Amino acid sequence: MPVNLPVPVAADLYPINGVRLGIAEAGIRKAGRKDLTVVLVDTGASVSAVFTQNRFCAAPVQVCREHLASGVGVRALLINTGNANAGTGADGVKRALATCGSIAEKLGLTAQEVLPFSTGVIMELLPVDRIEAGMADAIADAREDNWLRAAQGIMTTDTVPKAFSTRVTVGGAAVSVTGISKGAGMIRPNMATMLGFMATDACVAQTVMQQLSRELAEASFNRITVDGDTSTNDSFVVIATNKAAHNAIDSLDSADGQALKTAMLGVARSLAQAIVRDGEGATKFITVIVQGGRDTAECRQVAYSIAHSPLVKTAFFASDPNLGRILAAVGYAGIDDLDQGRIDLFLDAVHVATGGGRHPSYKEADGQRVMKQCEITVRVLLGRGDASDTVWTCDLSHDYISINADYRS
Amino acid sequence: MPVNLPVPVAADLYPINGVRLGIAEAGIRKAGRKDLTVVLVDTGASVSAVFTQNRFCAAPVQVCREHLASGVGVRALLINTGNANAGTGADGVKRALATCGSIAEKLGLTAQEVLPFSTGVIMELLPVDRIEAGMADAIADAREDNWLRAAQGIMTTDTVPKAFSTRVTVGGAAVSVTGISKGAGMIRPNMATMLGFMATDACVAQTVMQQLSRELAEASFNRITVDGDTSTNDSFVVIATNKAAHNAIDSLDSADGQALKTAMLGVARSLAQAIVRDGEGATKFITVIVQGGRDTAECRQVAYSIAHSPLVKTAFFASDPNLGRILAAVGYAGIDDLDQGRIDLFLDAVHVATGGGRHPSYKEADGQRVMKQCEITVRVLLGRGDASDTVWTCDLSHDYISINADYRS
Fold first, then answer.
1. Is B407–A232 a contact, with Cβ atoms under 8 angstroms apart?
2. Residues B199, B20: contact at Cβ < 8 Å?
3. Residues B169, B137: contact at Cβ < 8 Å?
4. pLDDT beyond 60 at B149
5. Residues from chain A contacting residue B123 (CB–CB below 8 Å)
6. Coil, helix or strand for B250?
7. Is A193 a catalytic residue?
8. How far lies A310's CA from each of A157, A331, B82, B195, in Å?
9. Chain-chain contact of B405 with A357 (C-beta, under 8 angstroms)
10. Which residues 222-261 in chain B show a CB within 8 A of chain A?
């Protein structure tokens, strides 16, 4: 049961002029599942992407990086579930390239104009023939108003499709932003989520696209964690189709650049938080804010230490205000000269600890009341500077174990 | 159900001349539990200890460090369960000192000759009066052949008392080594386990004691993890009573030093591994060996990345050879210039992956067979040097969640 994450309504998702999406059942791992998605992009779009920092990055990630570096432009994305094509060595790269070549041929493109994405089980060979057999159906299905079905097409252990959309005025023109994402486990993105795709019809110079995708990922997907496992396949793609009637944005610091980036960040954060809300076995959505650090990096370090602690996460699952576990996680976060005598801890508005110990006015009943909620904010003050950072996570429940013990069966 | 960890037999534990142990029921958290243990040490012993690196270290850890630094010598250890006296600020230190003062008075010692140890719930005030009330019983109970009962007296969520013993000849004299430990959750010692105590009647110069305890901890307690949560209270104490009839060891590099250290390391490793075997919810004991690294530190980093991955740990619980999860954990361990094309993975003797991909001869049935065992060795070859390191861990099961969701109830 996802935490406060309703199923999106197709009518709420703005089509993006210049982007068509189609899905098909290719029988990649199991029959009868929508497991193949294509995203067709008109010529002239600006595209950039960020990828996992996992050194065991998947074959499709390696191919994406090469194709983007070639500078020929991006005309199609090919996305499969059921097989991650990761831990597959040189053979995996050949197979990813083969699927790019096949769909390029069907679309009258070159293989380099295609970006491949795979998600699913690691260390199994990609069934190229089945993917090729499903391409025609997916291409035939491609429409501009197909974002919700594409969100469904890229789901694996997700229980809810993730899609958000917004509109903003840029350079006097109304532009749309729409995005989809997937992911529920193996989530501690270190660049992007498992898979995230966003598009806008706004006009953005290719020169600022890499900065845009990186800044969007940094403030959204790179601030979430479910289980601390950084995936081999994390990919986040941003497409600007340049169809809207306004002058192209060539600096993110301009008024138009700021307006567009703010709108896109809203969608990116919603997509990232949706992954946590639908985290495997999640029953609670936790916002961890760390303030008073010397720099953002140390605040993030402490926030992740709390967000990854199995003991903290099970206490949230149990609604048990066993909050000393949070202090312990602050203590082992790796800040060598941390002074425990300056630490404050809040649970929502409840002041739990001060000066390294229990706050004199703290009552267990107050902690208990907050812990029972399904949305909780943990706030830690380090008392050593002015920096702060925020991370979003979920609790650790019996269902996480069940889901991951049974994943392949 | 601990993994291959039988309940120790009192007759197998050698008494240590110069060390007496006694336990009592002090009703610290709940009535009817053996929750107070004293260890009385004859004059003239060499003593050293290592403690948690958690910056939120508990009040008793702070007091231990001060008392050891004073150099007056150690005559008594006072150990309570049911309350960690951590996250308790300046008041916690006062309370720890008060208990030292009380037992010192009863024993005709100074407070500085007492080391206090606490384990249990964090951020609750230590009930000094109840501990004081239990001291007389614990002192009256003190005997040299009481190691098993002391191992029982320091248990919290442990299901089996942990005690090991050995004998070795040093300088022509037969000496004994006996140790006890406790811990099952919040286990990723970064100096020592939750609590570990070892004693020998061998003669060891105080000048080499710190080196001895550090080296023993490094190769035992500092190589285990259950859940990656480094406790606020980890403490490991080594006592040499200097009662045996041989010349004192003043260098660990001497033949006698090596012989004693090897014997003590055997006990320390058994105590450390016992904590993993009795890890909360553990059904499997996993040895993670990483070889072919540039240095020990990077091997350890990769080993802990595997040992902490919730996805790897649930796959072990499920006996599911979903071994790509291990490759993913290798990839995100933080070695920036890791070449996935040089990685090999073995599960016991089964060669699972080579050159970054599935080994041509690997069959799922072989992986399945090993995964069903309750003792499994994961071996990763990094192919970039000659260093290696080993870490011991357990799986992540439904019972871990149940135990930690219900811990305080």
1. no
2. no
3. no
4. yes
5. 323-324, 327, 353, 357-358
6. coil
7. yes
8. 21, 15, 21, 20
9. no
10. 227-232
Amino acid at position A48, single letter = S
Kind and range of the H or E element at B290?
strand B285-293
Which amino acid, residue A383? Answer: G
Here the tokens at position B275 are: 């904590």
Which residues of chain B does CATH 3.60.70.12 include?
10-277
Classify A10-277 by CATH class.
Answer: alpha beta
Largest alpha-carbon pair distance within chain A? 72
Distance from CA of B284 to the nearest CA of A (A): 14
Assign B398 to helix, strand or coil. Answer: helix
| Contact (CB, 8 A) for B24 and B34 | yes
Contacts of B172 (CB under 8 A, 6+ apart): B246
Per-residue model confidence (pLDDT) at position B191 = 40
DSSP string, A148-173: HHHHHHT-SS-SS-EEEEEEEEETTE
CATH of domain B285-405: 3.10.20.340
Residue among A193, A232, A241, A287 flagged as catalytic: A193
Number of A/B CB contacts below 8 angstroms equals 239
Residue ranges of the alpha helices (H) in A16-127? Answer: 59-70, 89-107
CA atoms within 13 A on the CB side of A379: 13
Look at B87 and A353 and tell me if their CB atoms are within 8 Å: yes
Helix axes A255-277, A209-218, angle to 10 degrees: 40
Asked if A407 lies within 8 A of B185 by C-beta distance, the reply is: no
Displacement of CA A228 from its chain's centroid (Å): 13
Mean pLDDT by 10 residues, chain A (409 residues): 85 93 95 93 90 84 94 94 89 96 98 94 91 97 96 88 91 90 69 69 89 84 74 79 90 92 87 84 93 95 92 92 89 89 94 90 94 95 95 89 71
Look-up: residue for tokens 């159900």?
Answer: B1
Closest alpha carbon to B341 in A302, A98, A57: A57
Least confident stretch, A116-130, A285-299, B90-104, B270-284: B270-284
Q: Which residues pair with B175 in a beta bridge?
A: B168
| Per-residue model confidence (pLDDT) at position A182 | 84
**pLDDT tens digits for B308-338?**
898 899 999 999 998 888 998 898 888 989 9
Instruction: Outline which parts of chain A fall under CATH 3.10.20.340.
Output: 285-405
